[in-house]
Design goal:
Chain A is an all-alpha fold and 310 residues long. Helix content of chain A is 72%, strand content 0%. In chain B, strands 3-4-7-6-5 form a five-stranded mixed β-barrel. In chain B, helix 11 packs across helix 12 and helix 13 packs antiparallel against helix 14. The chains are: A mainly alpha (310), B alpha+beta (484).
């Protein structure tokens, strides 16, 4: 029997197996009502982010009505306008796409990088492991928020990606900075997992079959340590949303005119008393997103590893 | 145990050293250097700082020097570093009980401050180039009769660029044969034998281009934190930090205490009454707290308790600041309490809202952590044994369970205290509270790098120390952990 035929026979088995496992997890996850509510909230914000270009009443950056600045909420501008007459509701909607894009990109990049590094570190052990662990310890011993602020403040005017419109550079910079300071959690997590997986029988079996180290790491170590990474990544999404908005709020994150919830808070802070809605909704969006991700993470933890449930 | 502590101390030391390198490189090796902000500046040609001015500023700040030496100068100062021309001698120092022989370095021409006059005897071989035979530097107004007056513009080791008579530019070229008379070291100590080591450290010496690096900085490690560039122009950084530190400490300590004395009890209560309504409420609260963007929460607090209460005619809170500037307005909480600007009640009232905002995250986190730690312990056999013995539930919970449940909590609390310090950046900014956090924000915004570096270093040292303390405490209070 050739290899291709063998694979053909094995595949349906694998698929049904995977599906049923997925269904079991989904069933467990569905019981967590707050996590389901979190899914609904995130779905709402993602829809808002995707649909913003179609449903937002105005262009968030280019529409500027200088005859109607700092306007209170009205029928034309449900959340009023800002100091150069941009429509705040439109900015809020586009802000969702920026904030969520930044969060998802950062988490995807940092978790991937951290996982690979952690897997290498745990798998090879010895000197590589020692080096990676020292670097991880060192990164963790740096104060996160002050460091993020300093790095983004320094590179604010320097960072440029060729081909990217100028106003998007700051968003790209924030993604890079948050990734650089965000991979350590995944690295430690995966290293711990790999250390225990490394000595298990299936690894031995793979090695006995002559599978190379790279393939063992990519096909066995990382997939088997996925459940805790998924939980970690979900919780990290909430953290990144809050910290990105904190940086933007302190004016060292995503720079205007690109709207994010954080820099909108900074922009409209002065109108806290006269027009509190302008500050209320961006902040509420940050809060709801972070809360939703935290609940989803909690639900996923319960669903993926029932032993952890208390 | 002692060996473990010593090992951890050494590790912590190296981490701090590495952190100083990272901080220094970040701020100095960034593309364009620390003055890059000046280059971009304004689009108006008149307002833009010229390259020449930037060069001058770089020279003044010592950032035209090699990066490694700059780093050394930042950490341990450059007052001991070599100069263009040096004399070294062995001198007996009677000062302080120790009669030690100390290496004595004569800083040389690089020591000359701006506006010092130097006196040159030499021959002008080509116009504008003077080959110096003899150079003497003195403060203004002590001109020897037979000498030519010149003002130092730039020290270009091994040469000096000077203006002669206020107008004519000239380059004074020195050779190893040139003799120097340097202020502050004249007359030379009688004791000791004098050797000219300019062959080693001088312009023609082995250190060549690095000569001329003598300065007056004592370095961060020797508590010389330099002077601020822009936040408080020319003021020593240490004075600025000192003026802000106490405000932050008050805020930080009150936030820590609030988080501890509320967070831990509600965590314990929540665990003891697991699945009760109160437990759900507390768990929900901790989820809300950990997801809350604190700056927005702070704004909402101001909106409700300052602006909102004022609008409703209720006793309202001060919206920000460390203390009132003017007597409290009619109808405010401070007015009701009869407080005067700057008194204890006034200070206290200004700290309340920032404390609540700052502690929210930790209150939520610690209560959640205490809850899970407590639940873990309550499942243990020894708790069951205590119950089986017929001990009262209160004693089981507080004496047997709580003590053990608190072990991991202590570590987490110690580890997170620097986070509270750093969290003050956001809280202080929202409440316009003049502390370290707001200072950091201001100095970043105005590119005051000396200040930024120091505050960043303080944050880092605090983080490292608390990690160390957390680890040591953990091994001390938990007898199950042993180190070899």
């Amino acid at each position: 029997m050739s290899t291709a035929e063998l694979e053909l026979q094995v595949e349906p088995l694998l698929t049904t197996e995977a599906e049923s496992q997925f269904r079991v997890i989904w069933k467990r996850f569905r019981r967590h009502k707050l996590a389901m509510a979190g899914i609904v909230i995130i779905a709402f914000f993602i829809a808002m982010a995707i649909l913003a270009p179609f449903v937002a009443p105005y262009d968030p950056i280019r529409y500027q009505d200088l005859t109607n600045t700092n306007a209170p909420p009205s029928a034309e501008h449900p959340l009023g306008t800002d100091k150069i007459g941009r429509d705040i509701l439109s900015r809020l909607m586009f802000g969702a796409s920026i904030s969520l894009t930044v969060a998802f990109t950062v988490v995807l990049m940092s978790e991937t990088f951290g996982s690979i590094l952690g897997a290498i570190s745990g798998f090879y052990g010895g000197r590589v492991d020692n080096l990676v662990q020292r670097v991880t310890d060192f990164m963790l011993s740096l104060p996160l928020l002050p460091m993020l602020l300093a790095v983004s403040a320094i590179f604010k005017d320097q960072f440029a990606i060729p081909g990217l419109p100028r106003e998007w550079n700051s968003a790209a910079l924030i993604i890079v900075v948050l990734t650089v300071f965000g991979w350590m959690g995944a690295c430690r997590l995966v290293r711990g997992q790999v250390l225990s997986l490394r000595n298990q029988d299936f690894t031995e079996a793979a090695r006995a079959l002559g599978v190379g180290n790279r393939r063992i790491i990519l096909r066995h170590m990382i997939p088997n340590s996925l459940p805790p990474i998924i939980v970690n990544a979900t919780l990290a999404l909430g953290g990144v949303i809050v910290i990105e908005s904190a940086l933007s709020f302190l004016t060292f994150g995503v720079q205007p005119p690109v709207p994010t919830w954080g820099n909108m808070l900074a922009d409209y802070q002065a109108e806290l008393w006269s027009e509190p809605v302008k500050v209320f909704f961006p902040g509420l969006s940050i809060f709801l997103c972070a809360l939703a991700f935290n609940y989803i993470g909690d639900g996923l933890r319960d669903a993926l590893d029932p032993r952890l449930k208390r | 145990m002692t060996a473990y502590i010593i090992r951890r101390l050494i590790q912590a030391f190296f981490v701090v050293i590495a952190a100083t390198i990272v901080i220094f490189l970040l701020l100095n090796a960034a593309p364009g250097g620390p003055l890059s902000g000046l280059r971009i500046g304004s689009t108006d040609a008149k307002e833009r700082v010229s390259e020449a001015q930037i060069r001058q500023l770089e020279n003044l700040l010592g950032i035209d020097k090699p990066i490694g030496l700059q780093y050394l100068a930042w950490v341990i100062g450059d007052d001991w570093m070599g100069a263009d021309w040096m004399y070294a001698g062995l001198e007996r120092y009677p000062a302080s009980a120790k009669t030690a022989v100390r290496f004595w370095v004569d800083p040389g021409v690089a020591h000359i401050k701006p506006n010092y006059d130097i006196w040159v005897r030499g021959t002008e071989t080509t116009p504008g180039e003077i080959h110096a035979v003899y150079i003497e530097a003195k403060p203004r107004g002590q001109r020897p009769d037979d000498m030519l007056g010149a003002k130092v513009e730039k020290v270009l080791s091994p040469n000096l660029e000077v203006t002669v008579g206020g107008t004519r530019k000239a380059l004074i070229i020195t050779t190893p044969e040139t003799a120097f008379v340097i202020p502050g070291v004249d007359p030379r100590p009688e004791e000791g034998s004098w050797i000219n080591i300019s062959g080693l450290t001088g312009a023609y010496g082995l250190l060549g281009q690095w000569a001329g690096y003598h300065g007056e900085k004592a370095g961060v490690a020797r508590m010389d934190w330099g002077t601020s560039w822009s936040v408080a122009n020319g003021q020593p950084v240490s004075a600025i930090v000192e003026s802000r530190l106490s405000n932050t400490l008050v805020l930080m300590i009150s936030a820590t205490l609030l988080s501890l004395f509320v967070g831990i009890p509600i965590g314990v209560y929540s665990a003891v009454h697991q699945y009760s309504k109160a437990d759900y409420a507390i768990t929900t609260f901790s989820f809300f707290g950990t997801s809350m963007p604190v700056f927005w929460f702070g704004m909402m607090m101001i909106l409700v308790f300052s602006y909102g209460f004022r609008g409703l005619g209720l006793p309202f809170m001060p919206a920000g600041g460390v203390e009132s500037v003017r007597p409290a307005p009619e109808g405010s909480l401070l007015n009701l309490l009869g407080s005067q600007p700057g008194d204890l009640i006034d200070r206290f009232a200004h700290v309340i809202m920032p404390t609540i905002v700052l502690s929210l995250l930790y209150l939520a986190g610690w209560s959640r952590f205490t809850r899970s730690s407590m639940l873990e312990v309550l499942r243990q056999d020894y708790v069951r044994t205590a119950r089986a013995k017929g001990l009262r539930e209160r004693i089981v919970v507080y004496k047997h369970a709580l003590r053990n449940a608190l072990i991991p909590v202590v570590t987490v609390v110690v580890l997170q205290i620097p986070g509270i310090f750093a969290g003050a950046i956001l809280t202080e900014t929202v409440f316009n509270y003049k502390g370290m956090g707001r200072l950091y924000f201001e100095s970043l915004g105005r590119s005051d790098w000396p200040l930024v570096m120091i505050i960043l270093l303080i944050f880092t040292v605090l983080t490292v120390l608390s990690t160390l303390l957390g680890d040591i405490l953990y091994t001390m209070i938990d007898p199950r952990i042993r180190f070899h």
